[in-house]
Amino acid sequence: MKLYFVYAGKTIEFNVIYSRRKTIKIAIEAPDNIIVSAPIGVSQILIINCVKEKAPWILKKIYMFKNMEIKAKHEFKSEEIFLYLGEKVKLQLKIGKGEEKVRLEGDTLEVKVLEENKDLIRNALELWYREKTLETVVERVKYYQRYFHEIPRNIRVKQQKRRWASCTYYNDLLFNWRCSMAKGEVIDYIVVHEMCHMVHKDHSKNFWSLVASILPNYHLQEEWLKINGIDMEL
Predict the structure, then answer these.
(1) pTM above 0.90, yes or no
(2) Where are the beta strands (DSSP E) in 66-129?
(3) What are residue 10's DSSP bridge partners?
């Protein structure tokens, strides 16, 4: 069943699926398919009002999905812009023999490779970001350890498509290698978020209370990630 309402001059249409559940759930499939799961017997007015309350979040999600579709992929050419610690840095290629390496000089990200090849340049950059992310999160975990009795068993950097980080049952902290593209305060939030999962393995009220006790303004960093996460990519 399809329902709709108008918000800020935009018509928001969504599909409703009734099931044996206790709460209303809203999900968005790229680019703009809104699916609402609702308990059997709930009125259409109640569903519309519930979805309308989430309208700002829904529009932001749809905007992000559409941006992902039209976002141009990096060409890995000199003068192209990348992110590091929340700041824009400019790519500068150096082609020639010798060891492949990446180094940051001011706001210039200098990449030396054997030839101007997209895969070579991208791989060199990813390796550099991985090293910088591990270096940064290890330092920040040490800094915030004062707030925790629990100690991470391991700290690793890996490929994670849908998460910025995760914490395993055994307190292994796993970070997305793209984290070093975020600004420092945001990296702190990602680190603290996962360290709090060493105490609470869910997203319960107690979990968020612990996060807030360490980072009272964590929601600002969460918002930054929602808005800028699309740019944290190679």
Answers:
(1) no
(2) 81-84, 87-95, 101-105, 108-113
(3) 7
